[in-house]
Design a protein that fits this description.
Structural class: alpha/beta
Radius of gyration: 17 Å
Distance between the termini: 33 Å
Order of helices and strands: EEEHEHEHEHHHEHEH
Largest sheet: 8 strands, mixed
Number of helices: 8
Strand content: 15-25%
Number of strands: 8
Helix content: 25-40%
Shape: globular
């Protein structure tokens, strides 16, 4: 199968599309293990943030596959859409403001959806990995986060000119030109001591180099005292950038196991 064909296959339908704001891009697709969940133990929740280098060209549809796969394993999933570069109000800080708003909305309305707000995993792929860890860095209530092939070092992404300087478009300038934006947006610069973080990367990824996750984990593990962080690396031999979000692949089995372990 082509490496990125998951981007073009329609996902299974969601149970509901829920708005968390007034902009057309401020919504999430909700999937529940069972629509007859009332009265049962609340479900763990996976909040998923899709990638696409923060650009409006890419939307949440392709991530519906992994969300449906996790729902089949007994987890509620919220697949977030948000304003992106090219949308009015997209880029930093509007993009991240949407992610924070969606998270607050999901926690505040968790009871009516039979979701357990104490068992929440925030997960993102590629640029979504940056947003997921960034959310954990700004929300102390988040204790579990997963980056799938994440762009978790914005300085390095800029130095490598990934995806035609997508970081510059996202930050509205280079890291040197907008230092405040950069420090607030870059997971490598943030302190995330309260969250267990899994950095998962395919060893054959040629879109976001595996060294992003390796070096992030290495750097964070060297922190001490109040800055110490619980970071763990799972590098999957032979897997590329898209296999980590494709439930049809062998790589996905490792990711699914990690998510279930985190909410256990």
């Amino acid at each position: 199968m082509p490496a990125d064909d998951i981007l073009n296959i329609p996902p299974p339908p969601a149970d509901a599309r829920v708005a968390y704001g007034s902009d057309p891009n401020q919504f999430f697709d909700l999937r529940l293990p069972s629509l007859k969940g009332v009265g049962k133990e609340p479900y763990p929740l996976v909040i998923n943030i899709h990638g696409g280098y923060w650009r409006a060209k890419y939307n949440l549809d392709h991530a519906g596959h992994l969300c449906a796969a996790l729902a089949a394993k007994g987890l509620a999933t919220a697949n977030l859409e948000y304003r992106r570069v090219g949308n009015e109000g997209g880029a930093w800080p509007g993009t991240f403001a949407d992610i924070r708003s969606a998270y607050r909305f999901l926690v505040q309305t968790s009871a009516q959806r039979n979701v357990d707000p104490r068992r929440v995993v925030v997960m993102g792929h590629s640029a979504g990995g940056q947003l997921a860890l960034c959310l954990a860095g700004h929300a102390s209530s988040i204790t579990r986060a997963i980056s799938l092939a994440g762009v978790v070092d914005l300085q390095r992404a800029y130095q490598l000119h990934l995806s035609n300087d997508a970081v510059v478009d996202f930050l509205r300038g280079t890291p040197n030109e907008v230092p405040d934006h950069y420090k607030e947006a870059d997971p490598m610069q943030l302190s995330i001591p309260q969250a267990r973080q899994w950095l998962i990367h395919g060893a054959a990824d040629d879109v976001v180099p595996p060294a992003f996750s390796r070096d992030y984990v290495d750097a964070k593990q060297k922190r001490t005292g109040k800055e110490k962080e619980d970071t763990r690396l799972l590098e999957i031999p032979g897997a590329d950038h898209f296999e980590v979000i494709d439930p049809r692949t062998q790589a996905w089995k490792r990711i699914e196991e990690t998510v279930i372990q985190l909410v256990a």
